[in-house]
Amino acid sequence: MQKRLGFLNNCEIGGYSKFDYFHYHSLEPPQLFPEKRPVILYNPHFEEKESSFFDKGLDLLRALSETNKYNIIFMPHPDLVRKYPKLVNKSLELSNVVLISRPKINLEYMALADLYITDVSSSAFEFLYFNRPIIYFNTKKVPKDRYPSWRFGKVVEDLENIILEMERSLNNPQELEVQRREAFKKTFLNIDRHVSLEIAKVICDKLKSTKRQVE
User: Fold this and answer.
1) Higher-scoring residue by pLDDT: 106, 194
2) What is the mean pLDDT of residues 141-150?
3) Is 196 exposed, middle or buried (0-12, 13-18, 19+ CB in 10 A)?
4) How far apart are CA 157 and CA 141, in angstroms?
5) Chain Cα centroid distance, residue 90
């Protein structure tokens, strides 16, 4: 950050507080599907110029639905839902596809997923917590080395190959495990600590220090 923005005065990095949920609660994913099948979660980016959803998102969901082999979670970004509700709601016409509005941030839907499909969404980093297979749907056909995050998943450009890669990844979930684990450790700080509490302490200490200076 300092390389891009310059020296960050009065700044302290505490960690990623969303993972604090696991320190305070037992994760109990909801029961969304009547049949036990591999769960595929599709979470595209919300910006049209980067997202796979506007190119092939509904086609992907339809193809997955028609296989009748998977339980499918469609978890669009809130901005995608807000800007394009009619387009997003077309997924409701597909069988065995559950549309999630994401009212919570406890990762309960990610916890259900055996495999995660995205494009350039940063949520893929959160899914690293579960160390399960990731596929990047590269409908823009950009060079595969453009996005560093693509190194811990498979990059696929078309529907036919994405179905094949899904099956292969589900049968070999241990592939790229090491890369995913290393990326998770490098990305998130203090996962083993109560980050929210640590941040609160930093703020309180700063407020106390500022108060003493004023006095």
Assistant:
1) 194
2) 90
3) middle
4) 6
5) 22
